[in-house]
Design brief:
The complex is a heterodimer. Chain A has no helices and 10 strands. Chain A is mostly beta strands. Chain A has a 6-stranded mixed sheet with strand order 2-10-9-4-5-6, with no helix packed on it. Chain A has a 4-stranded antiparallel sheet with strand order 1-3-8-7, with no helix packed on it. The model of chain A has no long low-confidence stretch (mean pLDDT 97). Chain B is mostly beta strands. Chain B is globular, with a radius of gyration of 14 Å. The mean pLDDT of chain B is 97. The chains are: A mainly beta, B mainly beta.
Chain lengths: 107, 121
């Protein structure tokens, strides 16, 4: 199985900050990497697929990059509604594994 | 509008069984792979199982193999998860999700709100 490791596990940031979350796969997954956002008490929301392609309706302040084993999710200017937990997930093979999550909190 | 509504969760004793359901609407159910994902209290997301459009192919995470069975009824736009020999570590919020494809890339593009399963004596 492919293991997905995110860092950091949590971070504190202020509105307007640039935030970067890293996701590493235990083997190459090309660009078969998705990102999700989850707010407390809600279902996850799909943000990015193919490592860097934004889902329709997702604000352009979100961006993704990477290929192979190392990926990043960047929020260029953090907004109040962005405080949430973010998960990466590989779609290269089954089982479809998730990272452990990165909680973005208000500083 | 795509909607996924889970039901069937509840409190069950260790060793017991539950059958979860997911009612789908707003899309052609038979055209999509479907998935179950769970989230233990305060923990992250864990993919559990998925099933092909016609039900002919199924995959499971190792921790549930031999205990859980995923199935679907395309005539009724419904997804199921039969959970047997339940353990305390199966306690979680169970989400059903549609597995969509964007330019050939698999994504969980729509999710239900989840149904809570608690395994405890």
């Amino acid at each position: 199985d492919i293991q997905m490791t995110q860092s950091p596990s949590s971070l504190s940031a202020s509105v307007g900050d640039r935030v970067t979350i890293t996701c590493r796969a235990s083997q190459s997954i090309s660009n078969y990497l998705n990102w999700y956002q989850q707010k407390p008490g809600e279902a996850p929301k799909f943000l990015i697929y193919a490592a860097s392609s934004l889902q329709s309706g997702v604000p352009s302040r979100f961006s993704g990059s990477g290929s192979g084993t190392d990926f990043t999710l960047t929020i260029s200017s953090l907004q109040p509604e962005d405080f949430a937990t973010y998960y990466c997930q590989q779609s290269y093979s089954t089982p479809r594994t998730f990272g452990q999550g990165t909680k973005v909190e208000i500083k | 509008e795509v909607q996924l509504v889970e039901s069937g969760g509840g409190l069950v004793q260790p060793g017991g069984s539950l059958r979860l359901s997911c009612a789908a609407s707003g899309f052609t159910f038979s055209s999509y792979w479907m998935t179950w994902v769970r989230q233990a209290p305060g923990k992250g997301l864990e993919w559990v199982a998925n099933i092909k459009r016609d039900g002919s192919e199924k995959h499971y995470v190792d921790s549930v193999k031999g205990r859980f069975t995923i199935s679907r009824d395309n005539a009724k736009n419904s997804l199921f998860l039969q959970m047997d020999s339940l353990r305390a570590e199966d306690t979680a919020l169970y989400f059903c999700a549609r597995e969509g494809y964007n330019r050939g890339y698999s994504t969980f593009d729509f999710w239900g709100q989840g149904t809570l399963v608690t395994v405890s004596s």
